[in-house]
Specification:
381 residues; JmjC_dom (chains A, B); homodimer; 23% helix; six-stranded mixed β-sheet; RmlC-like_jellyroll (chains A, B); JmjC domain-containing protein (chains A, B); Cupin_8 (chains A, B); five-stranded mixed β-sheet
Chain lengths: 381, 381
Amino acid sequence: MKIAMEALWEEVRELSLGNGTEIDHLNSPPTPLQFLRDYVSQNKPCLISSATLHWPALSSWSQDTYLTQSLSASPNVSVHLTPHGNADALVPFPNNTLCFASPHVQQLPFREALHLITTTENSDSNSNTQKTVAYLQQQNDCFHSEYSALSSDCDDHIPWATEALGSLPEAVNLWIGNHRSVTSFHKDHYENLYAVVSGEKHFLLLPPTDYHRMYIRNYPAARYSYSQESGEFTLELEKPARYVPWCSVNPYLSPENMEAEMSKFPLYFNGPKPFQCTVKPGQILYLPSMWFHHVRQSPDAGGRTIAINYWYDMQFDIKYAYFNFLKSIQYRSIHDPTLPETASKDTDTESDCDSIAYGFKDEFSANGSVENLAGGSTKEE
Amino acid sequence: MKIAMEALWEEVRELSLGNGTEIDHLNSPPTPLQFLRDYVSQNKPCLISSATLHWPALSSWSQDTYLTQSLSASPNVSVHLTPHGNADALVPFPNNTLCFASPHVQQLPFREALHLITTTENSDSNSNTQKTVAYLQQQNDCFHSEYSALSSDCDDHIPWATEALGSLPEAVNLWIGNHRSVTSFHKDHYENLYAVVSGEKHFLLLPPTDYHRMYIRNYPAARYSYSQESGEFTLELEKPARYVPWCSVNPYLSPENMEAEMSKFPLYFNGPKPFQCTVKPGQILYLPSMWFHHVRQSPDAGGRTIAINYWYDMQFDIKYAYFNFLKSIQYRSIHDPTLPETASKDTDTESDCDSIAYGFKDEFSANGSVENLAGGSTKEE
């Protein structure tokens, strides 16, 4: 099984994706047919330049005043607060085990929320002067709700993608963060068109065939609570206990934990390198359904990274059936020290490290069983 | 592994193909985008009506005289001769084992070749009055070579498929046979558009996920030789010995061998039924790459079944990588009595029960190794 699975990781690169770390780069948007034939049908990512240069947002959103004035009459927006920027991620629990931590979500006027983001940026991230990392995001079609006052600044959908995929996006989400916010490895049940408006986003990408290299294990769910008074976070396990299957791999290692992490996750660190892609203003990343992705960001001069992503329905076709078959097979190797302890936990999970939006996927049923995706927003980008 | 694989067979039907035996039926040709999105990308077959009603062939080819006059100045055509109609199929060798038998291929003037086909039809197939079954076919783009005099009677390519797939067909093949010719289960590395001009073709179809249900095993290659003098066939093993991986399952059982065959191939006979499709004049079957297919035919009033198929290059993408992964996994089950004896032989085969045309695929290399597809024409339809 070890050899078969490693051959799969290699073959998808040999045949389709390439053996390097770069993805295809198009200088202008593809036709719907090209996009469908060369990328969606093949489940293959690409970066597209000159894709959104006509959006008013590309110039007008560079000014905080434009944004705050446009949204001054809007209802509050959802801000995700964490102490270190890693919401929806694995963090150490006081007993030294890892848990899956959700952020504290607060509703604030946009002006205050934006202030939190830009002041974090201006503070020294290693000091204690700013203990709160704020990320404006809500994967619930928020661009059409909380941010509807900005809707004329961007396209409602990506025309060539809509024509190729045969329907309008299911959700359009706005993301405003700074360099301290990181989204950990996960995957989504959507075709994702990811457009950067200001700053840069840095993606690491791995195809769904690399499932076993992500070491998806069950972690106890926890949630941050932020106290305005003390300015401190507390992290509490959910009660009743809930387990979330999540990717164990953190691709960016600090010198002090590098050796330990690399020996825990050798399939990731010793296998093919992830594809890397930086998305700049005016560009769109096509991030295919079921691909594992990790996201960091660099801010613009104003200390913000702003992006919009379009989630289109994916096809649950033979590729998805093959993926589920792959998932159901255990990779057993002397190189995989984590498997013996945790394999049994994984056997019955029906979804794993998926984004959980506002119930988009609740109606999808594989083999008659509805995937258990209830339970609040989890992740994705 | 047994459970995982059976879940795959079921899930691809639940999600994408449907649980019955029917495939999608379109009343008119799809747009290129629809075809690509709903069928090619999903590796899902469909039958398309009113697809070729504008072809002059649909009326003019009903007359033998039109065909013989049009081709009277053409070079000889290739006729495949067998005693029972099963060329490129498993047949019992005198020692009571099975071999993979290729037909006797003879070059004849078209008029004589057509006469062989129509007289077979008029004879009693159960008697010995006609021992030779003739099938006009050659999977080498023969419509553009041997039959080029007929080229203005049909389209050179299928416009909506060409636009969807992004290139012209690699080969266009003509098939003229009668009810005695049967093509055994196999698969092709091509997207196949199959158009019937006269008579009917009856397909059984199984998705590539059902690989293990076909019991692909290695059989010694043999070839028929036909003696004009004696009117008899001899079947001889190739020397040096060559083994051909081929599907073991014959889906149409005679009463006397039904029980034995069903117990030898339970995964096929006890699993999901194959999809069934009859293609009539004016219709096109989209037969996706890598699907297993078995073909029978019913003749028109003149005793002939005439069809043209268009082979388009397939994409060797993530689906193909998944398929090879599936292939590399052994299905071990108490229900599979054939595996223990033959599994070792299968392990190293690089291609199996594929059509072998005139070197179309020789340049394709997976993991750096060129597939061994030399060795003469084998099958397909």
